[in-house]
Amino acid sequence: MTTHHTSEGPSGPAPRRIGPARIGIYAFLLISALFFLLPLYVMLVTSVKPMAEIREGGLFALPSAVTFEPWIRAWSSACTGLDCRGISPGFWISVKILIPSVIASILIGAITGYALSFWRARGANLLFAALLLGAFLPYQVFIYPLVRIYSATGLFSTIYALVLTHVIFGLPVMTLLFRNYYAGIPIDLFKAARVDGGKFFSIFFRLMLPMSIPMLVVAVILQVTGIWNDFIMGLTFGGLANRPMTVQLTNLVAPTEGEIAYNVNMAATIMTAAVPLIIYFISGRWFVRGIAAGAVKG
């Protein structure tokens, strides 16, 4: 009687857990992490040092006496131009600009992408091409026409002008993202909803939007980062009364006279960058899933 030896798994020697290739990968990741974290470390330690210690040098040294007074000054009493209320007014102005801009641009972009993916209206391809063109044109091309339009309509130097500008410039990218994402959803699902009597908005809000959570997270991160970090639109359209946080930060870190308070500048910079960083840390897992689900499809 002949017996056959059967193997249930891969044969051969098991790979070593730690080899030269893995060590090289770890070394590369470690160096990359240090490269990107080093500026953040310098900013953090500088922001909690008194100016007397900063003048002595030691850029990478830990503070001998930690103080949060620079953070308090940066938030509430540092001078940004002629205004000595810190960057807190700019923070709340940025919030007022950010919330409606993000909601409106994402909602309109999702609806437009949904319409271009499933409803195929007449001229849809031409509209999509025009939106793609708008996504890649530089902002500077549109500034002068927008200044004239806002001046004629009374919107110039108002928050409404900034919100409308961010919605307009965010719409092409949002439409592209959602159009590519919805193109990956089986058309039979949409046809079944149509057979069940679904209309345009009922299918969108009850079927498509709940399926778009990963892409919504991607869109929120992109829009929050872009709108919160914007400088040129806030400087151009906001006027003196509606300067966002980034514009106030520029006025703070570039004084025309007196000693430069590096600790206050670092604290103000970290506070200005905090909102996008928090969004990234909270939704990083969803961001990767959304990118893999269709954000980079052509």
If you had to describe this structure to a student in words, what would you say it looks like?
This protein is 70% helix and 0% strand. The protein is built from 13 helices and no strands. The chain has helices at residues 20-47, 51-55, 69-76, 88-119, 124-136, 140-153, 159-183, 187-195, 200-208, 213-228, 232-237, 245-253, 262-295. It is flat, with a radius of gyration of 26 Å. The mean pLDDT is 86.
SSE class? mainly alpha
Largest sheet: none
Overall spatial form: flat
* Share of helical residues: 55-70%
Unreliable sequence segments: none
Rg result: 26 Å
- Strand segment count: 0
Q: Order of helices and strands, N to C?
A: HHHHHHHHHHHHH
The whole-number mean of residue pLDDT values reads: 86
N-C termini distance: 60 Å
Q: What percentage of the residues does DSSP assign to strands (E)? A: under 5%
How many distinct helices?
13
